[in-house]
Amino acid sequence: MTPTAPTVSVPRGQIDDSLWIDNQRLRASGETFVDVDDSASEQVIASVRSATRDDVDRAFAAARSAQSSWAQVPVEERIRVVREAVRILEASSAALADVLVSEVGTLASSVDKVQVGFGLTAITVTADNALHAFETQQLANSTVVKQPAGVVAAITPWNYPIFQVALKLAPAIIAGCSVVLKPPGVAPLTAFAMAEAFALAGLPAGVFNIVCGAGGEIGNYLAGHPEADFVSFTGSVSAGRAVATAAASQGTRNAMELGGKSAAIVWDDHLLEDAVRATFSNVISNTGQTCAALTRLVVPAHLLGATEGILTELVASQVVGDPRAARSTIGPMSNRGQRDTVEAFLRDAATDPRVRLVAQASMDGVHAGWFVPPTVFTATDHTSPIVQEEIFGPVLTVQPYSTHDEAVFLANATRFGLVSRVWTDDSEVFARVAAQLQVGGVIQSGRPTATEAPFGGVKDSGYGRERGLYGLEEYLVPKSIQAY
After folding, report:
1. Which domains are seen in the chain, by residue range?
2. Would you say residue 19 has pLDDT above 90?
3. Active-site residue 177, yes or no?
4. What's the pLDDT at 446?
5. Which of 370, 302, 299 is nearest to 330 (CA)?
6. Is residue 282's pLDDT more than 60?
7. Mean local confidence (pLDDT), 395-422
8. Cα distance between the two ends of the chain
C-alpha cells in the first residue's frame, strides 16, 4: 500500500522569512515589502519582505555548494524525487488552488485544472521523457555525453505561478542542476509550498533556493550573477531584454520565453462556428493572462458579419465577477498594474479609426477588484496597436482577409511568433500553411496540444524551448569525449 503523502502549507500574512535557502525559510534582509492582493477584493492577503543582493549571494552560494554532489546522484533517483514532490503537491492541491484564486484571479471552478493540474502535469511529463535526454551518441571516435548546465537562475511570471516554476524547476533538477528562483513579486506564495514539497521528497539542501521581491533590480542582479551558469526567463519582451542583457554581461547562456500575439486562421467556411467559439474561449481563459492566447482571429472577409454575430452572442453571455462565485464566467486580472495596462489599450482602441468595437461584456455589479470586461474589436489595418501589441487581457481582435496569401501575411505581420492555429480539415492545406507561419508551434483545427511538444517562440517571442524532452535539453550541455 502506498503511504499517504504529507501535505504542505501556503504562507499568508506578513512574511519576513521570504528566503528559501538550504531547505529552510530564512529572514530576508530587505527593508521593503511587496504586497500580494486578492484580485477580486483588493485586500492584501500577504506582505512579503524583499530580498537584497546579499540575500541573492547567499542563495547562489548554497546552490553552488550543492550542485556538484547533486549532479553525481543517479538520474533515476533525481526522477524519483521529482515524482514524489508531485505526489505531495497533489495531496496539497486544495490549499494551492485556494491561494491561486486570490493571487491570480483564476475561476475557482477551473483553478484546480488550469493552475495546479497543468503545473503538476508539466513536471510529470518532464519526468516521463527524461531518460531519453541522457542517451549517449557515438560519432566516429567521439562519444557525446550530456552534463548538467550547472547553477540555474530562474525568473518566472505571475500568470501561472505553479506551471511556470514547474517548467524550469523539474528539468533543472532532473538534469542535475541547482536552482535559484525569483518567483513573481505579486504571486510568490505557491513557490514556498513547492520548495517544501521538494524538500519533503528528498531534494538535498541547496539544490532549490528562492529569493523574493519586485522584478527590476533583484531580477537583473540574479540574471547577471557570476555564479549563474544558465538563465531561464519567462515574461514580457521589455523585461526579457533587460534580463538577457544582464546575462550577456557575464557571457551566461540563457533562454527567453516572452510574449505573444497569436493568430487563429479560419480557412474553411464549415468550421466557422467551432473556430469562433474555441478562439473566444481560449482568449478569456485565465482572464486572457496567457502568452500563447489566440488573441487574433483571422477570417474570410465574406464571413466577417457571421463571425461578429457569434462573438456578440458569446460576449453577452459572460458574467464578470468574483472568481469564487459559481455563476461567474470570468474573474479579475491578477493585479492592479495589469488591469490598468489593459484599460489603457481599450481606451486607445476606442479612438482609433482603424478599429471598430464589436462587443463588450457588462460590468454591472462589479464594484471592487481588478476586473476588465471581455471585449472584441474588428481591425481593418494590421498596423493598429490593438493588433500589434500584447495586451494580456480578455481582448480579441478580428481581422478579415480576402485571399489566402493575405491570411498568412496577416498572421505573420507582428513582431511576435509564438503559436498559431489553422482551422481546416485539409491536411495538405494545413501542412502548406504551417510551413509559412513564422511561429514556434502550429496547431490544426480543434486538436489539443501535446503536453510533450516543445513550447517556445521566434522573433520577439524569444528563444529556447520548454516542456518535455526539449525543455530538459536546455539544462544539459553536450560534451564530446574523443578516444584514439
Report:
1. 13-258+462-482 (3.40.605.10), 263-451 (3.40.309.10)
2. yes
3. no
4. 75
5. 370
6. yes
7. 98
8. 52
Cell 487574433 locates to 296
Give the mean pLDDT of 96-101.
97
Catalytic: 291?
Answer: yes
Q: What is the pLDDT of residues 325-364, one digit of tens each?
A: 999 999 999 999 999 999 999 999 999 999 999 999 999 9
Determine the distance from the C-alpha atom of residue 456 to the mean position of all C-alpha atoms in its chain, rounded to a whole number.
10
Rounded-to-integer distance, Cα 84 and Cα 257, Å: 28
Adjacent-strand bridge partners of 15: 48
Report CA Rg, the chain: 23
Q: How far apart are CA 110 and CA 326, in angstroms?
A: 11
Which amino acid is residue 164, in one-letter code? Q
Q: Which of 103, 196, 227, 257 is the catalytic position? A: 257
pLDDT, position 484:
72
Cell readout for 235 is 515574461
Angle between helices 189-200 and 93-104 (to 10 degrees): 160
pLDDT for the residue 123 = 97
Total-model pTM: 0.96
List, in sequence order, the alpha helices (H) in 92-138: 93-104, 111, 118-133
- Tell whether the model's pLDDT for residue 304 goes beyond 60: yes
Backbone angles phi, psi at 161, to 5 degrees: -60, -40
DSSP helix/strand/coil, 156 = coil
Pairing status of strand 208-210 against strand 178-182 = parallel
Sequence-distant (6+) residues with CB within 8 A of 403 are: none
Residues 6 or more apart whose Cβ sits within 8 Å of residue 111: 97, 100, 101, 323
Indicate which residue of 196, 227, 291, 390 is catalytic: 291
What is the secondary structure of 417-446 as a DSSP string?
Answer: ESEEEEE-S-HHHHHHHHHH--SSEEEETT
What digits encode the pLDDT tens for the residues 136-193? 999 999 999 999 999 999 999 999 999 999 999 999 999 999 999 999 999 999 999 9
Residue 155 burial (10 A CB sphere; 0-12, 13-18, 19+): buried
Please tell me the distance from the alpha carbon of residue 389 to that of residue 236, in angstroms, as a whole number. 11
Q: Regarding beta strands 458-459 and 44-49, do their DSSP bridges make them parallel or antiparallel, or are they unpaired?
A: unpaired
